[in-house]
Amino acid sequence: MSNQAQLAAQSSLALIESMINKAQNRYSENGTLYLLWGWIIFICSLGHYALLAYTSLGANAGYIWMLIIVALVYQLYYLNLKEKKETVKTYTDEMIGYVWMVFGISMGLVSFIATKLGGWQLMYALILLLYGMPTFLTGAIMRFTPLKIGGFVCWGLSISAVYISSKEIILLLIPAVISAWIIPGYILRAKFKNSFNG
Amino acid sequence: MFKELDPILHSQLRLAIMSLLISVKEAEFTFIREKTNATAGNLSVQVQKLKDAGYIEVIKQFKDNYPQTTCKVTPIGLKAFEDYVKALQQYLKV
């Protein structure tokens, strides 16, 4: 076979490689939703604890979690806007979307089941356990270590929930969201900005 | 014996389009144009050739009153691409 054919084959392979790299070298995650949920849950858990500790609201203090609805509405608006702007759909984005959808459904079910059957302590232990899963999996899919670490922190906190029977258990959510959403969210945002500047 | 290289894929722009589409679920015409640096006219012609060969699916629709063309690889296209890469590898083993 001629050298020319070999050269053509080589340049074709190089073209394929460069195109695949171009398709994959796009940092579409800017961390917005991580920061939104991170700060909402941070505020809700700190607020819930403060209301329980320093007011006589009692069980009504739990209404602070209604703030989640605000985050949900914003998320729907944001995703709608993002979809309009996006010119490409990748399998990675789709997988990550499904992972978090499964988490959302599971969280709703666990909250319902645990409040009916098991009570607070079980609910917090299970929520933290579940929270670790999508966090770790997203980290694995994106090859992004801060999220993997966040997953492990959540699992560690779910074990510690077993040993805290007082209202302080609510505060466990704070280190969980800081490690699984807030810190990775800011790192993703910085990477996203760099990918435009660099 | 050397396999004949698929003439549909053995063209720089068509191969670039297929390589891009193979890596994603689907992509808009504007994304492909941006990544390949091709002119809209040339890209349209090559996209049409890939479509006629059954290698890609082209979906034309309206998004916010603007026409939008989305492309995705078909199973036939995927098989053709794999065969093409295998044939290339065979050439390089010589």
Structure description:
The complex is a heterodimer of chains A (198) and B (94). Chain A is mainly α and 198 residues long. Chain A has one domain. Helices cover 79% and strands 1% of the residues of chain A. Chain A has helices at 3-24, 32-54, 67-85, 91-117, 120-142, 145-161, 173-197, and one strand spanning 88-89. Chain A is elongated. Chain A starts with a helix and ends with a helix. Chain B has helices at 12-23, 29-36, 40-52, 75-92, and strands spanning 26-28, 56-63, 66-73. With 94 residues, chain B is α+β, with helices and mostly antiparallel strands. Helix content of chain B is 54%, strand content 20%. Chain B contains four helices and three strands. A three-stranded antiparallel beta sheet of chain B has the order 1-3-2. In chain B, a hairpin with a 2-residue loop joins strand 2 (56-63) and strand 3. Chain B has a single domain, classed as Orthogonal Bundle (Arc Repressor Mutant, subunit A), CATH 1.10.10. Chain B is elongated.
Q: Which features characterize this protein?
A:
heterodimer; A: about 200 residues; mainly alpha; 7 helices; about 80% helix; elongated; B: about 90 residues; alpha+beta; Arc Repressor Mutant, subunit A; three-stranded antiparallel β-sheet; 3 strands; about 55% helix
What is the CATH homologous superfamily assignment of chain B? Winged helix-like DNA-binding domain superfamily/Winged helix DNA-binding domain
User: Distance between termini of chain A?
Assistant: 43 Å
Across the major sheet of chain B, the strand order is: 1-3-2
Q: Which CATH first-tier class of chain B would you pick?
A: Mainly Alpha
Classify the beta-strand content of chain A into a percent band: under 5%
- Specify the helix fraction band of chain B: 40-55%
- Reading the helices and strands of chain B in chain order gives HEHHEEH
Task: Note the gap between the termini of chain B.
Answer: 11 Å
Instruction: Please tell me the CATH architecture of chain B by its name.
Output: Orthogonal Bundle
Low-pLDDT segments of chain B: none
CATH topology of chain B: Arc Repressor Mutant, subunit A
The greatest inter-chain interface is formed by: A-B, 22 and 26 residues
Q: Sum up the overall morphology of chain B in one term.
A: elongated
Give the domain tally of chain A: 1
Which class of secondary structure composition applies to the elements of chain B? alpha+beta
Number of helices of chain B: 4
Largest sheet of chain A: none
What is the share of helical residues of chain A? over 70%
Strand content of chain B: 15-25%
Low-confidence stretches of chain A: none
